[in-house]
Amino acid sequence: MGALNAMKDKLLNAARQWELLDENGHVPDTPSYTALLQHAADAQDLSRDVLRLTADFAGSPHDTTRAGSTVLKHLGTAATMSSHAAPHFTETAECAPRSANPTDRHYLANRMVIDHASARAFLRRTSESLRDGANELDDHLGFQRFLATLTRQEGPPAPPPPRPGGRHR
Do the Cβ atoms of 10 and 46 come closer than 8 Å? Predict the structure, then answer.
């Protein structure tokens, strides 16, 4: 569960921190191609980590429960979403305006904004799927702990008290 929450936080932080636009909300005249490619590489690493987390959970005993199946569904969605982020970050770098033609620069800048925003949205949706999976797992484990406390009661439950007056015909 801690791994799910840690991964969720990493993805959400990446989505928040990997900015393309400057403080005025504009695409920089010369965006850093290196930084844009680093976003893609880091997103690829995060995606690999989400996939490993999903595979590890699939091999755990929790996978056999109904709640475990639901968690695995959330993790599968997270793995899919995270795999879409890196290509969008790469396309952002690919569109970094290098042309002197103002029309081309404008078109490429718009494509960069769309691709970068899409990539960040995939990271946010990945984080949300991990959050949902962690919540489901937490609910399931909390219920299991509750059941365990019920079974630890001292001895069997007392039989119901006899009815007053016994049986009458």
Answer: yes
> What gap in Å lies between CA 52 and CA 38, rounded to an integer?
21
Distance (Å, whole) CA 66 – CA 124: 26
* 8 Å CB contact between 130 and 75: yes
Q: Residue 8 contacts by C-beta under 8 Å, 6 or more apart in sequence?
A: 127, 130, 131, 134
Question: 59-79: string of b/e by CB count within 10 Å (b at 16+)?
Answer: eeebeeeebbebbbebbbbbb
- Concatenating the DSSP letter of every residue in 66-82 gives HHHHHHHHHHHHHHHHH
> Which amino acid makes up residue 65?
T
pTM over 0.85: no
What pLDDT digit, counting tens, does each position of 137-147 carry?
888 766 666 66
